[in-house]
Design brief:
By secondary structure, the protein is α/β, with parallel strands linked by helices. The chain folds into three domains: 167 residues, Ribosomal Protein S5, domain 2 (2-Layer Sandwich), CATH 3.30.230.10; 231 residues, P-loop containing nucleotide triphosphate hydrolases (Rossmann fold, 3-Layer(aba) Sandwich), CATH 3.40.50.300; 73 residues, Helicase, Ruva Protein, domain 3 (Orthogonal Bundle), CATH 1.10.8. The protein has 21 helices and 18 strands. It has a five-stranded parallel β-sheet with strand order 11-14-17-10-18. A hairpin with a 2-residue loop joins strand 1 and strand 2. Helix 2 packs across helix 3, helix 19 packs parallel to helix 21 and helix 20 packs across helix 21. It is elongated, with a radius of gyration of 28 Å. The protein starts with a strand and ends in a 10-residue tail after the last helix. The mean pLDDT is 91.
Length: 506
């Protein structure tokens, strides 16, 4: 008799249900596995054999056939170890046959029969719930991420013998304790700890309120990194849907333990990062930093030190909030909706814009070559360009209480509330997400402000994309100031945040 057990594997960011069919026939002892298994799945044969024997059972002699259906879906990972072992023991009559139609079973087996946690457990739970599967048997190591984000009846176990005991006797109630840990931001820097830089703090407040990408430039040691690292202290908490999306991503990546306490993703890759590490992909699909930063922050410190060809890869995800990765037989759509914060020195030595102190030693050619690593296409996709000056001595003891993380967050939450109310009947949530003709429809602007903007558009030759970004940034400023329409002051301030390193409005 053929034994049928439901399990699952991952495809991209989603779980896929797999039918594990086990049949044992007379013949020369052999172990065959069919149904497009990858190498990681084929290796289950030896793990299952050792786990069964070391758990006190006998590995059956005969011709063992394992079919993984549907046969046209590629199976990968170590999810199928446990269901294969259970199927073999049932097919050989060592444990009593039981109908497991409403169960999804998955987990990796060690040689001694212990169950190990697997990557991507949460998407499997979510897919099972969508397919009306209510009961889940899985390793205890995966309980934390599953119990907090998944729904259903959970039966976590430590080893194969415990699973067999439950299947045989049905003597356990599902795990019901609600695991909820207080989540905190990764960085605990408060903006009140940063001396001076009021204009920069204002820019960060605007960026957080409207999810606007920002580029900061200035001499070394002026506070660019601290300003970026403190951003999580003023960002609004994730919605339930956003939290679930992030949890799925981190589960697939094997970073689920980080999500137990992490509220908002904050990724800060080194400038030596490779293309596949930033964007994702590789021979085996891996999630890049832009996907790990989904619904959070991507911080590129010293952005001009990155290779230009790597920075150019950001153009599409910055615009469309997703990245498409195509392989020979598969295509994956990975989400990448992030707030980009970037920072750099103005020249290789970092002192070009200093009016006092150290003098720049770089030639004009070196400066231009350095700055041109950031193409006009990337600059065009930045909403805010902010120069960070050196702090003056008189600012050292002058703490401005207006820009503490608590007060900034309070203003930001109110601004987002106004954004959401205005955009309630649309697909957008933040001002930065508005595209096309919707910019002019959803961002009301006074006649005076429009005339100023049109004059600048003609005088400075800015692109239509930059034109729209100025309006959206000004709209966020108006939301922070509780203004119904964009005023001329908002437009002038927004234009001030479009000046590049050379002082040109772009």
């Amino acid at each position: 008799m053929s034994i049928n057990i439901y399990s699952a594997t991952n495809h991209g960011l989603d779980g896929v249900l797999i039918n594990v069919e086990v049949d044992i026939m007379r013949g020369i002892p052999s172990f065959h596995m069919v149904g497009l298994p990858e190498a990681s799945v084929k290796e289950a044969r030896e793990r299952v054999r050792a786990a069964i024997v070391n758990s006190g059972y006998t590995f059956p002699l005969g011709r063992i056939i394992i079919n993984l259906a549907p046969a046209d879906v590629r199976k990968k990972g170590t999810f199928l170890d446990l269901p294969i072992a259970i199927g073999i023991l049932m097919a050989s009559g060592q444990i009593k046959y039981k109908e497991l139609e409403n169960f999804i079973i998955f987990g990796e087996l060690s040689l001694n029969g212990n169950l190990k946690g697997v990557k991507g457990a949460l998407p499997i739970i979510l897919e099972g719930s969508n397919k009306a599967k209510e009961n889940f048997i899985f390793p205890l190591e995966n309980l934390s991420e599953i119990a907090e984000n998944g729904q259903g009846n959970f039966y976590p176990f430590n080893n194969l013998k415990q699973v067999i005991t439950y299947i045989t006797n049905d003597d356990l109630l599902p795990y019901k304790e609600n695991i909820h840990k207080e989540k905190v931001g990764k960085c605990k820097i408060n903006y009140s700890e940063i001396i001076g830089q009021l204009e920069a703090k204002r820019a960060m407040e605007i960026a957080a309120a409207g999810r606007h990408n920002i580029y900061m430039f200035g001499s070394p040691g002026v506070g660019k990194t601290m300003l970026a690292n403190a951003i999580t202290s003023i960002l609004p908490p994730l919605t339930k849907n956003e939290e679930m999306e992030v949890a799925k991503i981190y589960s697939i990546a094997g970073f689920s333990r980080e999500m137990e306490t992490l509220d908002i993703p904050f990724r800060a890759p080194h400038h030596t990062i490779t293309k596949s590490a930033l964007i994702g992909g590789g021979r085996e699909l891996t999630l890049g930093e832009i996907t790990l930063a989904h619904n959070g922050v991507l911080f590129l410190d010293e952005i001009l030190e990155y290779k230009r060809e790597i920075l150019e890869l950001l153009r599409k995800p910055m615009e469309e909030s997703y990245i498409s990765i195509t392989r020979q037989h598969e295509r994956f759509i990975l989400p990448s909706k992030f707030l980009l914060i970037s920072a750099s020195n103005p020249c290789p030595c970092g002192n070009w814009m200093n009016t006092e102190g150290k003098k720049c030693k770089c030639t004009d050619m070196e400066i231009h070559k350095y700055i041109n690593k950031l193409s006009s296409a990337i600059i065009d996709r930045m909403d805010l360009l902010c120069y960070i000056p050196r702090v003056r001595p008189e600012e050292l003891l002058n703490n401005n209480e207006k820009y503490t993380s608590e007060k900034m967050k309070e203003r930001i939450l109110l601004a987002i509330e106004r954004e959401n109310y205005r955009l309630i009947s649309t697909e957008y949530r933040y001002n930065s997400e508005i595209t096309g003709k919707d910019i002019y429809r959803l961002c009301s602007i006074t006649t005076k402000a429009r005339k100023i903007l049109e004059k600048c558009y003609m005088s400075y030759g800015i692109s239509l994309r930059a034109y729209g970004k100025i309006i959206k940034v000004a709209r966020t400023m108006a939301d922070l100031q509780e203004e119904e329409k964009i005023t001329e002051d908002n437009i002038i301030e927004a234009l001030g945040y479009r000046k590049n390193i050379f002082g040109e409005i772009v």
